[in-house]
Amino acid sequence: MASSVHPLASSAFSTSGSSGLYDRARPTYPPTALSRIFAALQSLPSSTNGLNVVELGAGTGIFSRLLLRPPVDVTTDVQVAKLVAVEPSVGMRDGFRAGMQKIAVPVGEMGPAGPEVAQVVDGSFDRIPVIDGWADAVIIAQAFHWSHGHYDTALSSIARVLRPGAPLILLWNLEDREEAGHPWVGPVRDVYEAHEQGTPQYRLMLWKAIFDMPEFTENFNMKYEYKRMKWTVPTTDDGVVERVLSKSYITALGAGEKEKVESGVRGVLKDTAKTWIDEDGGVFEYPYATDLYIIRRK
């Protein structure tokens, strides 16, 4: 069976996942987004043990850890009985286990039958190893666009595992080049986006083709919740460089090309104004826009 994940993503993310670069360089998600997600989950009926959640393209578990160990500034009574993290990349699954160790959460590899709350398994958007109607929610953070060209089979597979009325939650972070006070973001993006190699990046919104597909209209409600949230994270020049190097199409470049990209990024950062948090320490704001979609199964 052909993979439903873009081949560049599978190979490059395995490298950045196993090395620790992806988990180190990528941001978390803002409390406002988490609060909305937990509110959607809290509205669901569940067993006394809690909810069954599938996370597709779970990567190194950046979102998974927030789900199982919410930040102190996010209040929720949601209990997860089982999280099945589906991830096709061996390196990312290694990173997932390493990340869960940081918060002392045991990880199994048996799926729903495993005794551990957190399970990480091989699979993909259209190859989800759980039974029909098992999931109280399917969550995809920073990943669904990588199923481009296979949205039809992905939607059918997601609909199969979701129980009626359960949400499909899509979440993305995007470096915000429009936010005033951060003029370096646009030029930095110009440096690395020149190497996208035709990959189906989220910013292109190609994934929105799903809303016109019969697999969507037959299985999901057309009315959905959407929210864009603006926020910033502290960073440094090195942090911005690592964020760029963690991008799949940059990870896949040869050493010489990576050096050129890094030089270009550092040149922009040197010559462009920043919003400082600690100028002496070299710490400044990195602006993000987080897009959240909550779509309900019919």
TrEMBL record:
GO MF terms held by the record: S-adenosylmethionine-dependent methyltransferase activity
Specify residue ranges for compositional bias: Low complexity. 9-20
Alphabetized InterPro entries for the sequence? Methyltransf_11 (IPR013216), Methyltransf_Superfamily (IPR050508), SAM-dependent_MTases_sf (IPR029063)
Residues in a coiled coil are none
Region Disordered: list its residue ranges: 1-21
Q: Where is the Methyltransferase type domain?
A: 55-169
Q: Which PANTHER family match?
A: METHYLTRANSFERASE, METHYLTRANSFERASE TYPE 11 DOMAIN-CONTAINING PROTEIN
Q: What name is this protein filed under?
A: Methyltransferase type 11 domain-containing protein
Q: Which organism is it from?
A: Drechslerella dactyloides
